[in-house]
UniProtKB/TrEMBL annotation:
PANTHER family, sorted: FIBRONECTIN TYPE-III DOMAIN-CONTAINING PROTEIN (PTHR25466:SF9), T-LYMPHOCYTE ACTIVATION ANTIGEN (PTHR25466)
Membrane topology note: Single-pass type I membrane protein
CC per GO annotation: external side of plasma membrane
InterPro entries recorded: Ig-like_dom, Ig-like_dom_sf, Ig-like_fold, Ig_sub, Ig_sub2, Ig_V-set, T-cell_Activation_Regulation
Organism: Oreochromis aureus (Israeli tilapia)
Keywords of the record: Cell membrane, Disulfide bond, Glycoprotein, Immunoglobulin domain, Membrane, Receptor, Signal, Transmembrane, Transmembrane helix
SMART domains with a match to the protein in the record: IG, IGc2, IGv
GO biological process: cell surface receptor signaling pathway; cellular response to lipopolysaccharide; immune response; negative regulation of T cell proliferation; positive regulation of T cell proliferation; T cell costimulation
Protein name: Ig-like domain-containing protein
SUPFAM superfamilies reported in the protein's UniProt record: Immunoglobulin
Segments passing through the bilayer: 469-490
Protein location: Cell membrane
Pfam families: V-set
Keyword Cell membrane part of the UniProt annotation: yes
Length: 505
């Protein structure tokens, strides 16, 4: 083999990057996270990057010191090596106080002293948005808290039931009134118009019952040119004298109701159910005739004897569809009169993280109240487009995002037992994101979020790792081919020179 060939082969092998596969990490907003990266070789440099940051990086450490020049501003004073000595090849990164804006695929590249070559691993970080329930009384002012990455120029507050109208939009230092819902005119503003330290919290003045709902805080990520969901806030507006209970989906809940008098009848109702009730018990027995179907076999008195005036109701396996204001009406034997109390039940949606590899099919689970006819699956970053809409027994293709065409369907189109789970076929890395399952509540004519799913897609061998393996194989083959070509060229040249020597003498 010639010296040129050997040199070329050496150069080709120098630029080979070896991937150790991809890891998946999930975290909640506000957590400190360790992105693990460890090798057994002596390391001279480490670079942490994220694809969407362009030329800027997360963290660079070389020649024994941190190099800040190309660090993205959002990571300033928030990242550090777990061990600056990098003992035992540990170059894991600590990322502090994470937000959903930190979600993405991180690459850890290290330079090996012995071989002067680079190795890397990739880590997918998925950060769940903050979900808070904030109670407030009518007439009060309330602050809806939200913290964004620093230097952000656009923030949008929205509420699911307002459709295309927003609560508040602020960009480039100015409030933008276009598309603001009329009910919020002159009633909302940022707590800090300068958005110092990423504070994009919203002040809502003179709250009314109609302000109750699910608010979402989003910021525009310039690097990705997309809106990022940071915070979900359930605003509960309480009338005077009302009890409040919070629960998570799947729990059993006791709605407390107790009076000191002897009770002859008790009726539990919810305003949005119309003429139907939650539970009726009179003359020593349960009366099922007007019970709403969604409560069938799910409710019972804590004490059927109602001793000591206890008319509390047990509600089993709650979902967000059970959220609302319940009224407990009891009939007093001595006076033959009725008394009542109201209870506000707030049920948080299920939040599930599901990992899947590229190329696989996946089921996104969701269970809605029985007899539901409308279901919609959405993903926050798709804006007005949806993933899947099913209404009155039919799939509705209008406004479906093109990337989901012929790839999604309900697991059971009959939606038996409230099963509105979605099948997503042939998953790709672009399918990663936060999916929300909504159902239309006929009684209130409002859309209710039932389930939130974080889909984490591992590229597997068809993604980043496979690409690295392909690159390695391609470079090795190229090196071998070049080597062989140079070798045969040299042989041929030597043969020609030996045949020409006699004539030259």
């Amino acid at each position: 083999m010639s010296a040129v060939t050997a040199s070329l082969c050496s150069t080709l092998m120098f630029v080979v990057f070896v991937s150790a596969g991809q890891k998946n990490i999930t975290a909640d907003t506000g957590d400190n996270v360790i992105l693990p990266c460890r090798l057994t070789n002596k390391i001279t440099a480490v670079e942490w990057s994220r694809a969407d940051l362009g030329d800027e990086i997360v963290f660079l450490y070389q020649d024994g010191q941190f190099v800040p020049q190309k660090q993205h501003p959002s990571f300033k004073n928030r990242v550090a090596l777990r061990d600056r000595q990098m003992k035992d090849g540990d170059v894991s990164l600590i990322l502090k106080d994470v937000t959903t804006a930190d979600s993405g695929t991180y690459k850890c590249r290290v330079k090996i002293a012995e071989t002067n070559s680079w190795k890397y691993i990739t880590i997918n970080l998925s950060v769940s948005p903050v979900i808070k329930t904030i109670p407030v009384k009518s007439g009060q002012n309330v602050i809806l808290p939200c913290r964004a990455p620093k230097n952000n120029q656009r923030v949008k507050w929205s509420r699911a039931d307002l459709k295309t109208a927003n609560v508040f939009l602020y960009q480039d230092g100015h409030f933008v009134p276009d598309h603001q819902h009329p009910s919020f005119k002159n009633r909302v503003l940022l707590r800090d118009g300068q958005m110092k330290d990423g504070d994009v919290s919203l002040i809502l003045k003179n709250v009314t019952i109609n302000d109750a709902g699910t608010y979402e805080c989003r910021v525009f990520m310039e690097e990705r040119r997309t809106w990022k969901l940071l915070v979900i806030i359930k605003l509960r507006v309480d009338p005077p004298g009302q009890k409040n209970i919070t629960a998570e989906s799947g729990q059993d809940v006791t709605l407390t109701c107790r009076v000191t008098n002897k009770i002859t009848a008790v009726e539990w109702s919810r305003a949005d159910l119309g003429d139907e009730n939650v539970f009726l018990y009179q003359d020593g027995q349960f009366v099922p005739q007007k019970q709403h179907p969604s409560f069938k076999n799910r409710v019972a008195l804590r004490d059927r004897q109602m001793k000591d005036g206890d008319a509390s109701l047990i509600l089993k396996d709650v979902t967000t569809a059970d959220s609302g204001t319940y009224k407990c009406r009891v009939k007093i034997a001595e006076t033959n009169s009725w008394k009542y109390i109201t209870i506000n039940l707030s049920v948080s949606p299920v939040i599930t993280s599901i990992p899947v590899k590229s190329g696989q099919n996946i089921t996104l689970p969701c269970r809605a109240p029985n007899n539901n006819k409308h279901v919609m699956w959405s993903r926050a970053d798709l804006k007005t487009k949806n993933v899947f809409l099913y209404r009155d027994g039919h799939f509705v293709p209008d406004n479906q995002h093109p990337s989901f065409k012929n790839r999604v369907d309900l697991r059971d189109r009959q939606m038996k037992d409230g099963d509105v789970s979605l099948i997503l076929k042939n998953v790709t890395f672009n399918d990663a994101g936060t999916y929300v399952c909504h159902v239309l509540m006929e009684e209130t004519r409002s859309v209710k979020s039932i389930s939130i799913i974080k889909l984490i897609v591992d590229p597997g061998r068809s993604g980043g790792q496979g690409g690295s393996v392909g690159l390695i194989i391609g470079l090795i083959v190229a090196a071998v081919v070049v080597s062989c070509c140079c070798y045969f060229c040299c042989r041929r040249k030597t043969s020609e020179d030996s045949q020409q020597l006699p004539s030259q003498i």
